[in-house]
Amino acid sequence: MKKILIFEDEPAIIEAIKQELTKWQYQVEAISDWEHVLEQVQAFKPELILMDISLPAFDGFYWTQKLREFTKVPIIFISSADLNQNAVRALMIGADDYLVKPFALDLLVAKMQVLFKRLDQQPDEHLLTFASYQLNQLTNELSQGEAVVKLTPTESLILKLLVINQGEIVTKLKLIQALWQGNNFIDENALNVNISRLRIKLAPVGLKDKLVTVRGKGYLLVL
User: How confident is the model at residue 3, as a pLDDT?
Assistant: First the structure.
């Protein structure tokens, strides 16, 4: 059962979408706490997001940009706003499709099915596999067999950089620059804190001592 998350503040629209998608065996939730939006996204782990533009806190463009910092989950914009200008903007910042209100629910379902079919035909590019481990870059979960470790988006990006540069020193400057590109504004002290937290989280899967500090240079992942 695929999970759908709705960014919408009109109860009637939410209920109509929920009723229709439930018929198609989708699990549907809507954002209920606009002060903790990203926490709800990460807790629910949606496989597709329906995004309105006008929302109680910020707008759909803002939330799409925030989501794209840590997930590639498909996003369909649903809005009564002008199609051309807003559709182009939505697609430019990472949306996958756009619907204009009012719309037929069967058209929404059709667009969703097309997106899911396309994704099913693609390799799992969000899965980074190394040794006996797998890092899910959509959910920021590191797994080894049945063991699963939940990372923050920052910790996940640090681990990804160490993995793809496995056996080579990754400098602090390179890590900081990569994190800044993801709009995580951190300095060297904040990086050190994130590295320490990452080490603690890696302990249950036997990677704590594999993350090596090279004094005065950076960090190294040795497997």
Answer: 95
